[in-house]
Amino acid sequence: xxxxxxxxxxxxxxxxxxxxxxxxxxxxxxxxxxxxxxxxxxxxxxxxxxxxxxxxxxxxxxxxxxxxxxxxxxxxxxxxxxxxxxxxxxxxxxxxxxxxxxxxxxxxxxxxxxxxxxxxxxxxxxxxxxxxxxxxxxxxxxxxxxxxxxxxxxxxxxxxxxxxxxxxxxxxxxxxxxxxxxxxxxxx
Length: 188
Description:
The chain is an all-alpha fold. The chain has one domain (44-177). It contains seven helices and no strands. It has helices spanning 9-41, 45-66, 74-99, 108-119, 123-133, 140-143, 145-180. Helix 1 packs antiparallel against helix 5, helix 3 (74-99) packs antiparallel against helix 4 and helix 3 runs parallel beside helix 7 (145-180). The longest helix is centred in the C-terminal third of the chain and has 36 residues, at 145-180. It is extended, with a radius of gyration of 23 Å.
């Protein structure tokens, strides 16, 4: 195409390491020393993590749509939403198919965990990665739009599929229990 660019891999990987890996390692080390205290006090980590995630989503939305150069028309936004929902459904369907193959050793509960955990990604990791990889890029807010749509889409699709997947899992577990029970001898 007649254009070229250079990517500072060392800088990007060191920033990603410091932003993602180091806090994880520090958290695991600290957790080992304060585990007993945490079990006694039982701090509301669920509420805290939900609030932090909500703040990350809010600030990302604000950063994205505060820039006047976003230039995203409604038709393009609708196409992006359609593509993201299609990709998310396809990934969930493919993971379901692969984890329920006849030679698979996964239980129905394993399949549910695989379907949801393998396809769900969070803004808490995606946004820092985008900001590091595309630092200084003037259209960063435009690049973050698909991630901003993907996160709510996975939550919406997951909540819509929970009743269906739950009924599948329960019926599959019952069927597995029936096939594993030894048959009673028939008296003649």
